[in-house]
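Holo model, zinc ion. Inputs:
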Amino acid sequence: MEVSCDRCLEPMACPIDAQSTLKVVMGDEYADDGDMVTIPEREGTINVAWNIYELAALQIPLRHVHPEGECKSLTLDSSLKEEKEEIHETDPRWEELRKIVNRK
Ligand SMILES: [Zn+2]
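Output:
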């Protein structure tokens, strides 16, 4: 897959290798219990685009950066670059959680 590098934001290749099995059965109504999908007999087809997307997306590592020295935007000075990385590593959800904890 092609993803944006966390450090320089340029596109980078992220090789993924995943396999999955989706059990599909015919039934009266559409149902998806996670392990098995029931599709209505009158339709008889299933669109697996989302399943493939989800499977692939789960393979992308949390942090993805070019190998050291291969980032494209090396014109940034090092202090700016560090600041940029720091912003990237702070998940806003943790900040919200911290506010809730501090309120007690
Ligand atoms: Zn990069």
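The chain has a mean pLDDT of 83. The CA atoms of residues 31 and 77 lie 53 Å apart.
Archived with the compound record.
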